[in-house]
């Protein structure tokens, strides 16, 4: 039972950041119909910004995390404005090729600037774990969970309780009608890509102090983000949230009871099984045709 609880706690901590990644990716796809192949590199960008601000410049750790998230949003807005906006009306194949190229260029740039040696983001938290009954967890991981849950709650309020959220949901449901009602679609697209990019950068900044930071750290993360989106249903934000935790549970229990070498494989095996049974994903929304 103690092992069960420990694995469950670890999965919940990891699932929070997975949910942030999945929401950012599904938000961009749902509103813009763009498959964001730079998502993993934006995650890496956030981790490197946290390293630069907290490790190299010596800024306050918590301020560094907030600034890394803002810089991720700014980079996302720049990508949308310079790469995606000129491709408005282009077919999806062209957009995908451009985004794949952008992701490759970003990784090459990170390799050039930071080199291939792994970096470590300094953390203000003690190394001694917090003991909660029969389980234990590091203070840094509890902080990551707390911030992730706070961001998930804030994102829910943004989407469902603000005028901006109404405009984004309207653009998601019917872009043409939303434009007729006065919604600035260009602005919505920029804000959407910036917000999704900021969530990816935040996840990278949060996990940077727990893992090492390398130029290729976003490769597997990007695949997992796509897996989360597919698991939850394309364009389904609540589904992406649940999918993030489901993937983390599959990885954690698979690593704990089979082998740590199968950690990453377990999640994708789950995705394959889900797609065989329910190709549209577990929580895909119904669409009106005609």
Automatic annotation (TrEMBL):
Its main location: membrane. The chain crosses the membrane at residues 12-35, 65-84, 138-159, 187-213, 225-250, 262-281. Keywords: Amino-acid transport, Cell membrane, Membrane, Transmembrane, Transmembrane helix, Transport. Signal peptide: none annotated. InterPro entries: ABC_transp_permease, BCAA_transport_permease. Coiled coil: none annotated. It is a multi-pass membrane protein. CDD domains: TM_PBP1_LivH_like. It is found in: Cell membrane. Pfam families: BPD_transp_2. Belongs to the binding-protein-dependent transport system permease family. LivHM subfamily. This is Branched-chain amino acid ABC transporter permease. It comes from Azospirillum himalayense.
